[in-house]
Amino acid sequence: MNNRQLTYALDLYKERSFSAVAEKRGITQPALSKQILHLEEELGVKLFDRTTTPITVTPAGEYFFREAQTLLYREEQLVRSMADFRTGKRGRLTIGISPFRALYLIPPVIARLRELYPEVEVVLQEQPSDVLRREAAEGRYDFAIVNLPVDESVLEVTPIESDDMVLAVPHRLCEHLPREGALSLADCGDLPFVVVGQTQELRRLFDKGCAAADIQPHIVMEVVGVSTAWSMCRAGIGATLLPRQFAEHMGAGGEVQLYPLKHSLRTRQPAVVTRRGQYVSECATAAINMLTTWGLQNCY
Fold first, then answer.
1. What distance, in Å, lies between the first and last C-alpha atoms of the chain?
2. Mean pLDDT of 198-221
């Protein structure tokens, strides 16, 4: 039994006329009759009584067509469901992201995705940048957000709005600093600093900037994450290096002055990355488009 035979038989069940079904399907009556006979032979029962005019349906046929219509309906729903999974309207979207970007960059995107794709489960995998790069290359995520550079022979790269780096300084420590304008780390040799761990990209950027400025920073506290460094800065413990977008999202308030930085510490370039050749669903594509076209002003 194939779908064509089943479709023809259901048409005949409804029309009770070989000529009407043949015309509807664009086939000859003998070809239609042959398809119905093959179906009946395969089932081992007669579905139609051809001795009456119009033809009638046998008791076996009544049962068969009742069940067949249910079967075809379920098949149609199954095909539609698979199409939803294929296009990304259902299923799961897995995003790799660093914990600090999960605080400010991705929430508005997820909120919009829930409106557009309510049947999609969005999963955030919060990992350090090195883990994100490795696992994105392994295809563990629908996409990940990391800082450039990456291995573009393995990863497809879509840059998003760059991070503007700022130095967040507690107001109580700003006495000998200008009221506004950009700073160089060379101007900050006397400041106490709160820094993140040495394995993190932000710390490596800070250390590189201090080396270029030829200063030995006075580190009063090392913490695990950017959000903790920010909290310590707001408490007046020390200055810390941050992306401006993060600081503004968290709310600088009256406790902290944000200073743009000069030279090589001015920006970082984040990007959306996927493994080359990886299937990207409609939902994932929509999320990537939001990240690349909205601009971070939508996060605040």
1. 59
2. 92
The residues pairing with 233 across neighbouring beta strands, listed in sequence order, are none
Predicted structure pTM score: 0.63
Whether residue 295 has pLDDT greater than 60: no
In angstroms, what CA-CA distances link 112 with 144, 283, 292?
18, 11, 14
Q: What is the pLDDT of residues 55-110, one digit of tens each?
A: 999 999 999 998 888 887 677 767 766 776 766 677 889 999 998 899 889 999 99
